[in-house]
């Protein structure tokens, strides 16, 4: 049996091809892919601006339905699931230390090996997670980016009543704001785009700021001072990957505070050697997640209205190139784009 696959063969070039349907190995399940959401990494790969090799079947934010299993996992047949795309080696120092999200030989479906722009994917049964009843499949595909936001929030060690500043109101920043507010944290959010900043209020932010040169301006600083008793936020989540934003994070965070860097770029940042020791800051990185997709599904299920705000565009599988063009066009404001895979309409949401 064969299936249709969209393969990125070169910069901004897709080829739709017929390939053999994957054979399921023992311990694996075969999943029919129903919905794939796009992120910035997908666009970088499509533009051949990412440290991976083409050709590649992209797609790593995946939701579908299980169609084949081992006999002892028959309970999964017909279940709607989300796939954890992270593939760790299990034997390196990080894996042995219980941190496979930073495995030395880390791979990710759709980023470093073929992923979900295919009608079927075979994966270990341990890497699929049931979608809660009532959560639409397309929203469930957001569980992977939600797990990334949850990892950053978990790294920040939030406590109810603390004040956190989220820098960057893209999907990861918004989902981090939602997760922080869900834990009883008072959330401030900032972005260079006024519309994106305002959107954060729907994700639990009590105050939002538009970032401009000289941020924060006098009025914004007064608001921060009033809310934090002139101490600054105890937590800052940096979700842009912009060097100046990390500088702002270190400058604005309270003494003894925690800064989590989840935004990624290849650029360098300059910090004073006094900043970290004088304020005794915890400067923490965050990558992927430590098995937090189930918690991500739970958060999305309990905050479905906010989650649905993220899905701003939908494209058919055959129109995947148009979806990437929309992502790349600064004149088209996009949140998350969902790709509806073939036969998705035949499976109940």
Automatic annotation (TrEMBL):
Matching Pfam families: ADH_N, ADH_zinc_N
Keyword RNA-binding among record annotations: no
Domain of life according to the entry: Bacteria
Cofactor dependency: Zn(2+)
Coiled-coil annotated spans: none
Keyword check for Zinc: yes
Keywords per UniProt: Metal-binding, Oxidoreductase, Zinc
GO molecular function: metal ion binding; oxidoreductase activity
Boundaries of every Enoyl reductase (ER) domain copy: 10-339
Protein's name in the database: 2-deoxy-scyllo-inosamine dehydrogenase
Organism: Microbacterium ginsengisoli
């Amino acid at each position: 049996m064969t299936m249709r696959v969209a393969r990125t063969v070169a910069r901004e070039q897709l080829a739709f091809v017929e390939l053999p349907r994957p054979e399921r190995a023992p311990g694996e399940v075969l999943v029919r892919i129903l919905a794939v959401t796009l992120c910035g990494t997908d666009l970088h790969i499509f533009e051949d601006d990412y440290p991976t090799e083409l050709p590649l079947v992209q797609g790593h934010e995946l939701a579908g339905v299980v169609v084949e299993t081992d006999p002892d996992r028959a309970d999964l047949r017909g279940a709607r699931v989300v796939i954890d795309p992270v593939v760790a080696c299990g034997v390196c120092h990080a894996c042995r230390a219980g941190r496979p999200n930073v495995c030395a030989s880390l791979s990710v479906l759709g980023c470093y090996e073929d992923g979900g722009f295919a009608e079927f994917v075979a994966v270990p049964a341990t890497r699929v997670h049931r979608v809660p009843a009532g959560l639409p499949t397309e929203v469930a595909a957001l569980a992977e980016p939600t797990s990334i936001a949850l990892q950053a929030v978990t790294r920040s060690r939030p406590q109810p009543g603390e004040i956190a500043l989220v820098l960057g109101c893209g999907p990861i920043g918004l989902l981090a704001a939602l997760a922080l507010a869900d834990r009883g944290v008072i959330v401030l959010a900032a972005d260079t785009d006024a519309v994106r900043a305002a959107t954060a209020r729907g994700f639990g932010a009590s105050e939002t700021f538009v970032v401009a040169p000289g941020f924060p301006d006098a009025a914004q600083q007064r608001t921060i001072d009033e809310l934090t008793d002139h101490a600054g936020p105890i937590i800052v989540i940096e979700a842009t990957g912009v060097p100046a934003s990390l500088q702002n994070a270190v400058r604005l965070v309270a003494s003894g505070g925690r800064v989590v860097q989840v935004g990624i770029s290849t650029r360098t940042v300059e910090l004073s050697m006094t900043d970290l020791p004088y304020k005794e800051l915890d400067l923490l990185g965050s990558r992927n997640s430590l098995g937090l997709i189930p918690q991500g599904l739970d958060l999305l299920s309990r905050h479905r209205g906010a989650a649905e705000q993220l899905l701003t565009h939908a494209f058919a599988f055959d129109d995947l190139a148009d979806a990437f063009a929309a992502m790349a066009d600064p004149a088209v404001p996009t949140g998350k784009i969902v790709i509806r895979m073939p036969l998705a309409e035949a499976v109940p949401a």
